[in-house]
Amino acid sequence: MARSLTQLELLIELEPIAEQNVNRHLSMAKDWHPHDYVPWDHGRNFAAMDGADWDPTQSALSEVAKAAMITNLLTEDNLPSYHREIAENFSQDGPWGTWVGRWTAEENRHGIVIRDYLVVTRGVDPVALEQARMTHMTNGYNPAHLIRKHSDTQFIAADAGFMHSVAYVTFQELATRVSHRNTGKACHDPIADRMLQRIAADENLHMIFYRDMCGAALDLSPDQAMDAIANVVLAFQMPGMGMPNFRRNGVLMAKHGIYDLRQHLEEVLVPNLKKWNIFERTDFGSAGERRRNEVGEYLDKLEKDVVRFEEQRDKALARDARRDPTPPVFIG
């Protein structure tokens, strides 16, 4: 059985590949400025400056779009927690440190531009939004809650350090890209759609960096990386878990096609697993084979869950349509 590498050994062995990927990212990333994506001429003062405070009639967003925008923004707001997690599990030296700093700076723009858009257009209640931000950021993000019982295997995903972090963030960045892109469509506002397309493009480049680093880790220590990937796949939760109204907003987003079970399976899990050739690899030991089999069984179960979810969703949407003949917002 192959020895698991320590976090320091992994970082040292993978540092040349990290440098290559940082350089590639810097050559591909496009500079952009949040102020260029906000319709400032829509803005006006609030009551504290002799204007009018927010009321629901001022918002042009549907309830679905509001839920998605708030969820996406509060997720972006928790950047300090994510930065800490990445910095602790990667490194602040050399190319690792360059990546951590660059990634953090790029991610910070996302929260800036979404908040400016929502406040200027009065898309959501800014007071409630600020209260939710305070709560969510005070709670922070702690991956130690990712405990899952699957078959006869119990694991605590947070214990896996670098391997868990790089596997988790690969899937999470792709999931965030999907959510942002579909939220833009749900807003029915070309300005919001353009803004969220720009953010989604960032998330895609971030995903590519993490995906390639995870692939390199698979080549370096197959069983160890497969263990981390299996832990993440079987216990995946979006980082917004625990934010105010997360469950309600998540249900709305799933019900109306912003981020649902099929998208999670077909647009997030499967593409990354295929890119890593998880089910074609021949370099796993017995432990890696066991974890790969668990992932395969989980995907089979998830396919059945998708069908059940969509059947229930269709019934719920039909009931809603009978109560309100206005066509529901749905992003296919």
UniProtKB/TrEMBL annotation:
Pfam families: FA_desaturase_2. It comes from the Bacteria. Keywords: Fatty acid biosynthesis, Fatty acid metabolism, Iron, Lipid biosynthesis, Lipid metabolism, Metal-binding, Oxidoreductase. CDD domains: Acyl_ACP_Desat (cd01050). Its cofactor is Fe(2+). Belongs to the fatty acid desaturase type 2 family. Homodimer. This is Acyl-ACP desaturase. It comes from Nocardia tengchongensis. The lineage of its organism: Bacteria, Bacillati, Actinomycetota, Actinomycetes, Mycobacteriales.
